[in-house]
Amino acid sequence: EARASACVQAGAIFVNATAEQYIQRTLKNASLPSDDVLDYTKRGVQDFENNLKRQFDGSTPSGSVEVAGTRANYPGIGIRRGHMSLQKATVQTFFDVCVKEIKTSVDQQIQGQNVSHILLVGGFGDSPYLRRVFKDRYESQGCQITLTNDST
Predict the structure, then answer these.
(1) Using only C-alpha atoms, what is the Rg of the chain?
(2) Would you list the domain boundaries of the chain?
């Protein structure tokens, strides 16, 4: 260990908050009743946390979150059969503020060092998107990206 690790307040909870803001704003802008906005937002964030966030790696063009029952159709905001469609670029914005902060911290820590391994720890370290971004950025510099729960 060349330097003590740094703790950056940028993780999964902030990704969830950004997703929640987006879903809520989209529903409000569509002039849905306020009760529906609250219910759909809650359900959408829960589905995002349990599914899309855990699967998203930035390689698929779109994803969706379940915000309502199958009878809910609001084509103007991308809701069909209760699922809100989200383009890859939109989902990336949920992650990118946190990912940028983490990359900045890592860049500062490894500057001027010969680093062969970077360990991703914590719940956000399990994010396929974070892992892909780190591999793209640091493996070309000779760093191996390792999850703390990896067997290697």
Answers:
(1) 18
(2) 12-94, 101-147
Residue 8 has pLDDT above 60, yes or no: yes
Q: Which of left, alpha, beta for 32 (phi over 0: left; psi -120 to 50: alpha)?
A: beta
β-strand partners of 117: 144
Cα–Cα distance for residue pair 67/84, rounded to 1 Å = 7
Return the pLDDT at 9: 67
Cα–Cα separations (whole angstroms), residue 108 to 12, 99, 111: 22, 14, 5
DSSP string, 51-95: IIHHH--S-SSEEEEE-S-TT--BGGGTEETTEEEEEHHHHHHHH
Specify the length of the chain in residues.
Answer: 152
Dihedral sign of CA atoms 46, 42, 22, 17 in order: negative
- Work out the angle at residue 15's Cα, subtended by the Cα atoms of residues 48 and 99, and round it to the nearest 5 degrees: 130
For 115-134, write each residue's pLDDT tens digit.
Answer: 999 988 888 889 999 999 99
pTM over 0.85: yes
Q: How far apart are CA 79 and CA 64, in angstroms?
A: 9
